[in-house]
């Protein structure tokens, strides 16, 4: 297969890569660009572990072709902390023990951040529906919901 | 496999028509990429339509709306005027998948993937929506109702792509609703579903009703007699019972682990009843 040349922006930085036409953005991020924060849980859009944003929209990167990133703005979990300074969501996930194995965590953080940008004060129900596409095998979700709400409260105060 | 990001509808149609092997159109990719990965389909050419000018826009036209084929579910949900005029259409497409899937999935992809359980389709057919199609021989319009041909099959000809969907103007006292039944609250495939579009007279009786059922036949079915059973009524119990019976009469579902024939048939009538009551209230009817 002839490789495609793609120019894109990831977490604000310009990136160029070559990829096969049928290669997913998730595989490009992980295998070609060394951005292994996004995880592959299912590869079929069901688990949300691969969540990133493309042009501001939350998507599953396993359901996007690498080629579709041409000219796009992509953000991943790697862009969430500001240098050594963790994002409030990241801090509250650690403080509130909202993770165990951590496989779902990058996807949930990216998804939660996308919600808080749209709606800084979601109800628990809105939050649970928003995160319905992010599966977690470990936590039972409750601590995740509480950590996101704690971060949201802090961010509203800030 | 080759990937082409077409710059015009004509380029897309030309490339699809010229390709001898298997082709797929890439809108949101939420069906295409799942099929690619599972090896269910191995296309020779994928044509991405999202770079075609205008294909991602929603514009007012003749009192109604023209919705570009690449508009995502999330974008439809954010369009207040469209959601107010066609709440049933908006809730159908917004039931598809998760937030992540909503960021990508399109109504046209749902229609052309041609699953009998596609959540966007019943409301579109109930709305008398019309698809605009670009093909090697130029442009044509076709009712959405005539696009599905069976599971995984459409009536589109080789090289044809849908470029937009037109939703007509709404008179006063008109609205719609969509309901599906799934065993969970999110992320599942409809066992049965119903889209209902109603127009009321000034006195609150039904002037026109269009009832469309999903997941109970190889394609969505328009339940004409069910619609007729509501005309002239204000959705009294007798009318609703007659309507549900007429719905059951047109069901021809499969029997599987998700639901038996009897269950799907009964559910279709029940969902149509409930959707009709919601559409009636939205249209300003009171009982
Ligand atoms: C996790 C998950 C959950 C889901 N949940 C639901 C659900 O609840 N309900 C439901 O109905 N579906 C569901 N789906 C299926 C899918 O998301 C929908 O069918 C969606 O609407 C497909 O749209 P798309 O734009 O992604 O289509 P694509 O995958 O881009 O395309 C689908 C098909 O349509 C054809 N096509 C696309 N655009 C055009 C066009 N403009 N002209 C002609 N042909 C075209 C393609 O060739 C392809 O065959 C789910 C999928 C996933 C991954
Ligand atoms: S890996 Fe993408 S949704 Fe599971
Ligand atoms: S912490 Fe293990 S899957 Fe969520």
Please explain how this structure is put together:
Chain A has helices at residues 25-32, 88-95, 105-118, 124-130, 142-157, and strands at 4-10, 13-19, 51-54, 57-60, 73-75. Chain A is of the alpha+beta class and 158 residues long. Chain A folds into 2 domains: 4-79, Beta-grasp domain (Ubiquitin-like (UB roll), Roll), CATH 3.10.20; 88-157, Orthogonal Bundle (DNA polymerase, domain 1), CATH 1.10.150.120. Chain A has a 5-stranded mixed sheet, with helices on both faces. In chain A, a hairpin with a 2-residue loop joins strand 3 and strand 4 (57-60). Chain A starts with a strand and ends with a helix. By secondary structure, chain B is α+β, with helices and mostly antiparallel strands. Chain B folds into 2 domains: 55-167, 2-Layer Sandwich (Uridine Diphospho-n-acetylenolpyruvylglucosamine Reductase, domain 3), CATH 3.30.465.10; 174-282, 2-Layer Sandwich (Enolase-like, domain 1), CATH 3.30.390. Chain B has helices at 9-18, 32-38, 73-77, 80-85, 87-94, 99-102, 107-113, 121-126, 224-230, 237-250, 261-282; strands at residues 2-5, 23-26, 45-48, 58-61, 64-68, 130-135, 138-143, 148-150, 153-154, 161-167, 174-181, 192-200, 206-214, 221-222. In chain B, helix 9 (224-230) packs antiparallel against helix 10 and helix 10 packs across helix 11 (261-282). The longest helix of chain B has 22 residues, at 261-282. The mean pLDDT of chain B is 96. The chains are: A alpha+beta (158), B alpha+beta (287). Chain A binds chain B through residues 1-2, 4, 21-22, 24, 43-46, 48, 51, 54, 57-60, 62-65, 67-68, 70, 111, 114-115, 129-134, and chain B through 1-3, 5, 26, 28-30, 33-34, 36-38, 46, 48, 50, 72, 74, 97-101, 103-104, 185-187. The site of one FE2/S2 (inorganic) cluster (FES) has 12 residues of chain A, from loops.
State the total count of DSSP E strands of chain A: 5
Q: The biggest beta sheet of chain A, please? A: 5 strands, mixed
What is the tally of beta strands of chain B?
Answer: 14
CATH class assignment of the largest domain in chain A: Alpha Beta
Distance between the termini of chain A: 51 Å
Contiguous runs where pLDDT drops below 50 for at least 5 residues of chain B: none
The most extensive interface, with participating residues per chain, is: A-B, 33 and 28 residues
Rg of chain B, Cα atoms, Å: 19 Å
- Write down the domain tally of chain B: 2
Mean pLDDT of chain B: 96
**Number of distinct helices of chain A:** 5
Q: What is the spatial order of strands in the main beta sheet of chain A? A: 2-1-5-3-4
Structural class of chain A: alpha+beta
Bound molecules: flavin-adenine dinucleotide, FE2/S2 (inorganic) cluster
How many helices of chain B? The count is 11
| CATH fold-level label of the largest domain in chain B | Uridine Diphospho-n-acetylenolpyruvylglucosamine Reductase, domain 3
Helices and strands of chain B: which structural class? alpha+beta
CATH architecture type of the largest domain in chain A: Roll
């Amino acid at each position: 297969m002839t490789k495609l040349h793609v120019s894109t922006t990831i977490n604000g930085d310009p990136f160029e890569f070559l990829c096969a036409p049928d290669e997913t953005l998730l595989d490009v991020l992980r295998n070609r660009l060394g951005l292994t924060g996004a995880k592959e849980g299912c590869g079929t859009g069901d688990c949300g572990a691969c969540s990133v944003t493309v042009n501001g929209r939350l998507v599953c990167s396993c359901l996007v072709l690498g080629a579709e990133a041409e000219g796009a703005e992509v953000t991943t979990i790697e862009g969430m902390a500001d240098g050594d300074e963790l994002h409030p969501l990241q801090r509250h996930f650690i403080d509130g023990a909202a993770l165990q194995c951590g496989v779902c965590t990058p996807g949930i953080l990216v998804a939660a951040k996308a919600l808080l940008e749209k709606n800084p004060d979601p109800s628990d129900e809105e939050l649970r529906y928003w995160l319905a596409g992010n599966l977690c095998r470990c936590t039972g979700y409750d601590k995740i919901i509480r950590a996101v709400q704690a971060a949201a409260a802090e961010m509203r105060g800030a | 496999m080759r990937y082409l990001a077409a710059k015009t509808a004509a380029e897309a149609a030309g490339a699809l028509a010229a390709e001898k092997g298997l082709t797929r159109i890439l809108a949101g990719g939420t069906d295409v990429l799942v099929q690619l990965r599972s090896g269910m389909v191995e296309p020779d050419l994928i044509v991405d339509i999202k770079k075609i000018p205008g294909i991602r826009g929603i514009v007012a036209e003749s009192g109604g709306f023209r919705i570009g084929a690449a508009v995502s579910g999330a974008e439809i949900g954010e369009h207040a005027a469209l959601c107010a005029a066609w709440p049933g259409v908006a809730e159908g497409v917004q039931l598809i998948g998760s937030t992540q899937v909503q960021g990508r999935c399109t109504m046209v992809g749902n229609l052309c993937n041609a699953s009998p359980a596609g959540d966007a389709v019943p409301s579109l057919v109930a709305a008398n929506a019309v698809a605009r199609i670009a093909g090697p021989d130029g442009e044509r319009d076709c009712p959405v109702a005539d696009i599905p041909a069976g599971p995984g099959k459409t009536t589109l000809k080789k090289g044809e792509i849908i470029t937009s969907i037109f939703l007509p103007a709404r008179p006063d006292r008109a609205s719609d609703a969509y309901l599906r039944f799934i065993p969970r609250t999110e992320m599942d495939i409809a066992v049965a579903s119903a889209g209902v579009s109603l127009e009321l007279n000034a006195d609150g009786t039904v002037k026109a009703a269009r009832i469309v059922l999903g997941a109970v036949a190889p394609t969505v079915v328009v339940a004409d007699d069910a619609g007729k059973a509501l005309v002239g009524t204000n959705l009294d119990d007798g009318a609703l019972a007659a309507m549900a019976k007429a719905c059951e009469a047109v069901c021809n579902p499969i029997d599987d682990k998700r639901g038996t024939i009897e269950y799907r048939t009964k559910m279709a009538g029940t969902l149509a009843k409930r959707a009709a009551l919601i559409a009636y209230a939205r249209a300003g009817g009171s009982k």
